[in-house]
């Protein structure tokens, strides 16, 4: 098995400088059937009842109030699936645990203290399929990027992202539970942080964990920073994690905004934002990465499978 050591902290700027790979075939994903709304921060496609489905964040350009729709492909375009539920969430993600579909997203609500501001939390649903999804758990208020992965021994890995006193602008934590019944706010809040990933002025989170062939967890995530003008910079990245020891590999970028096609942005400070949605690993050693671009659209890009290096 690949031996992982403690990660080395690198800044966004260092990671961009070191990044020399060439992603291929950028392609805009065309969504229709949702009026003038944007679709972005999508999941990777997944199979549901014999059909590929993408979950996508749907909202108007001037709002943060979004819904998650389930889209299916028809004649090269993705349209809302007839009869599928619409969930009042942002930034959907999925996994499979104990044979069930587990779907999550970010729920916003009026902030309990700051008048006029919004709070947020991660909410989880599960079911045999999309049609039978039922809410079963919530994360702590103020936490996005909470993710689950079924491990080789059928226990469940939990990736967290506290902010504030414990996590600053946002750092990744890790813990394990034996079943979904144990996914409580207390367990999430107590998860130890992974050390050696982010400087305090920058932040990051997990977007989609993958169980690798050797039992390690390959994590697709993002690392982000503000520049001096207050613009946001989000980069898709990966690292590997040993679920038994919590040891991690160094963070590595897999693309930047410049590798995708030009397009609109929700606001000027979001131009350089790539939000890692999901990764589809392919038999030819490549992977398709699905991403939200500039909080306004969705694209996919082909890269060398970034997790192969950890499976040796």
* N-to-C CA distance: 7 Å
- Beta strand %: 35-45%
Order of helices and strands: HEEEEEEEEEEEEEHEEEEEEE
Largest sheet: 8 strands, mixed
Do you know the CATH topology? Tachylectin-2, Chain A
Radius of gyration: 18 Å
Tell me which CATH architecture applies here.
5 Propeller
CATH superfamily: Glycosyl hydrolase domain, family 43
What would you call the structural class? mainly beta
- Number of DSSP-assigned strands: 20
CATH class: Mainly Beta
Mean pLDDT over all positions: 95
Low-confidence stretches: none
| Number of distinct helices | 2
Shape: globular
Q: What helical percentage do the residues reach?
A: under 10%
The number of distinct structural domains comes to 1
How would you explain this protein's 3D organization?
By secondary structure, the chain is mainly beta. The protein has a single domain (12-310), classed as Glycosyl hydrolase domain, family 43 (Tachylectin-2, Chain A, 5 Propeller). It is 4% helix and 44% strand. It is built from 2 helices and 20 strands. The strands form 4 sheets. Strands 1, 14, 15, 16, 17, 18, 19 and 20 form an 8-stranded mixed sheet that branches. Strands 2, 3, 4, 5 and 6 form a 5-stranded antiparallel sheet that branches. Strand 7 and strand 8 form a beta hairpin. The chain is globular, with a radius of gyration of 18 Å. The mean pLDDT is 95.
